[in-house]
Amino acid sequence: MNIHEYQAKALLKRYGVVVPRGGVAFSPAEAEKVANELGGPIWVVKSQIHAGGRGAGRFQNNPEGKGGVRVVKSVADVAANAGEMLGQVLVTKQTGPAGKEVKRLYIEEGCDIKRELYLGLLLDRATSRVTIMASTEGGMEIEEVAHNNPEKILKVAVDPATGISGFHARKIAFGLGLEGKQVNAAVKFVMAAYKAFVELDASTVEINPLVVTGAGEIIALDAKMNFDDNALFRHKDVEELRDADEEEASEREAAKHELNYIKLDGNIGCMVNGAGLAMATMDIIKLHGGEPANFLDVGGGATKERVTTAFKLILSDKNVEGILVNIFGGIMRCDVIAEGVVAAAREVSLHVPLVVRLEGTNVDMGKRILAESGLPILSADDLGDAAKKIVSAVQRKAA
């Protein structure tokens, strides 16, 4: 689950991370009120959407104009810029051409920036450690730094059995070239960020830029936090921060039915049981020249109703021109999948090619249900055969 910048800063502040003062606004009048409360002489008006690159982004109604993060020098300009940004669609590198509508702003006090750094915390699955990443190249996307200047990324792994210690944080501080009182400030900052990461079950904490002010303070000028959905039951206060408007409607609907669904840009819908098998299915579709339209894991114990819902979700995507169902029946029975597929296909009046590969528990029964359905369903012997058939069927339809 993602949250907005101002929400991330509020959470981090609870743990002792230093952030600038600011307030959220949903209208120009509210933006003006927040600016007056903060005082001047400089304010920053920030669009709040679940995407990075807001400052470099451009609004669809004025692609040659200013971006989604603006520095202003009067309360009147705060209100004027708020009026220009609210209700408009902001396009950034991370939103894609469709962009995202700006429905809220964060009005923040100005900051005397001397240096811009980068700090991030994430779980490194290769080492099973929380890894702290830092770089002197703040303000840039970390992927660009990794590609162009990998030597400028410092990584410190923390063993979860022992937790973070002062030396971890000092290694980060010295690696960033901090000195004097900046080191102690950075140590407190890193320790606080780590505590927030662990206690809130975050999957990512990214502070970019982390700035050193003219007075030597260490401040989170921007903040991004993602959370492990599986742990949200422990953090109802965090779950309440969810902004449904920022999420794909189909993904919200999938979550209601305990389906793992992520919309992609391709035209071949996938319904698979098991995350690993789903990834392999998408890979083999691409291998044979197709493009997957989604990641969809129906789980190991899905019911007929859940399978029917999954099928409807796939077909709700207007880009889908074909569907591949790939099921290996262990706990999940092939006859249950077949019944769900047939029920959904009849209910939505199937109009795209459908290839089904079944293997495992009750496979013969499942194949018989499909064969006797009277629907134009193509059966496949294995995954490679299934991928070839659906890619070929979609290409024929397009031609």
* Major β-sheet annotation: 6 strands, antiparallel
CATH class of the largest domain: Alpha Beta
- Structural class call reads alpha+beta
CATH architecture of the largest domain: 3-Layer(aba) Sandwich
DSSP strand (E) fraction? 25-35%
Describe the structure.
The structure is a single chain. This protein is an alpha+beta fold and about 400 residues long. About 35% of the residues lie in helices and about 25% in strands. The strands form five sheets. Strands 8, 9, 10, 11, 12 and 13 form a six-stranded antiparallel β-sheet that branches. The longest helix has 19 residues, at about 180-200. It is elongated and about 75 Å long. The protein starts with a helix and ends with a helix. It catalyses: (S)-malate + ATP + CoA = (S)-malyl-CoA + ADP + phosphate; GTP + succinate + CoA = succinyl-CoA + GDP + phosphate; succinate + ATP + CoA = succinyl-CoA + ADP + phosphate. Its EC number is 6.2.1.5. Its cofactor is Mg(2+).
